[in-house]
Amino acid sequence: MTIAAVRTHRLSAPLHTPFVTALRRTTTVDTLVVEVVDADGRSGFGEAPQVWQVTGASVAGAEACVRQLLGPLLTGRDADDLQARCAEVRRAVVGNESAQAAVDVALHDLAARRLGVPLVRLLGGTTLRVPTDVTLAAGDAVDLAAAATRRRAEGFTVLKLKVGTDAPGDLDRVRAVRAAVGPDVRIRLDANQGWTPREAVRVIRGIEDAGLDVELVEQPVHRRDLDGLAWVSDRVELPILADESVFDLRDLVEVIRRRAADMVNVKLAKCGGLHTARTLLDLAAAHGMGTIVGSMMESQVGLGAAASLVAAYGTTAVSDLDAAWWLAWSPVAGGIRYDGATVVLPDAPGLGIANVSEAKVQSHG
């Protein structure tokens, strides 16, 4: 069965709450959905989120990559030879990881739809329920404590606190959140590259000395400062999670070689799709590193793929799959839903996406 068409859909949807980190502030999800259509009219979907400050990917750039190169490459090819098609996508372009991921996921989604099984089953898993943390956007101690109280009341038991915007005040922020939620909620920190190595050690040791029971600290220093990351990891007790420092296999090998981090956050839009993501998880496990799967600010399409990966492969800590929870409304029909702190995968073929909401996107064939 051949691939008849590759289409792109530009989506923009508002968030119910501004998302603020040490790197950026956004009030919308802006993303590209890629649709791969077979000769029988079945469609598989994938997503390339726009995140200038992390991946450098844009909707326009991802769309150009898909329309000018990856789409023509795949059109007319055998849709059933999934591994060959995904390998062709990986070889066809350098960088453009978000565009590669969108096409890779769309090919997997289409393959699962053609078999009539959920994507998680194609990947070797069975469960349709995956726990997630929820992010507390960067802010002052009072606002963070209030947000933490609300999230706990909504059933979330793992809170990811965005720090790194103001190192001297970060200890007070963590202390306020811990006081607000009590001892039964896990707190993890994400500095999004916002600290210097010395600031990171100072803040983390302060947290340790205060007994605030933090689970882990994500990307404390600049992503290219692996020496600094290793320096921090060697001087604190809390596990250090590498995120922006690891896009691909070469990055992870270097982190492992330098013993720069204890854990890794694998994201489809960073690494280029499900094939590479699985390899990253396997490599991390082989070297005793902890793992989570994360997401950019993206829709139910990307989140469905990430959650399916977690459901099939597992991670050592609760994954970071709350991005679509931030949407004020869904720009797609079908797909995952949230039940408190649980991502519920649809018991439907592929990702369970029925269609893209044409009233809220611009589409291109």
From TrEMBL:
Binds 1 Mg(2+) ion per subunit. It is an enzyme of class 5 (isomerase). Residues 141-239 form the Mandelate racemase/muconate lactonizing enzyme C-terminal domain. InterPro entries: Dipeptide_epimerase, Enolase-like_C_sf, Enolase-like_N, Enolase_C-like, Mandel_Rmase/mucon_lact_enz_CS, Mandelate_racemase_C, Mandelate_racemase_N_dom. Its cofactor is Mg(2+). Its EC number is 5.1.1.-. SMART domains: MR_MLE. Keywords: Isomerase, Magnesium, Metal-binding. The keyword Metal-binding applies. It holds the Pfam family MR_MLE_C. Belongs to the mandelate racemase/muconate lactonizing enzyme family. This is Dipeptide epimerase. It comes from Micromonospora halotolerans.
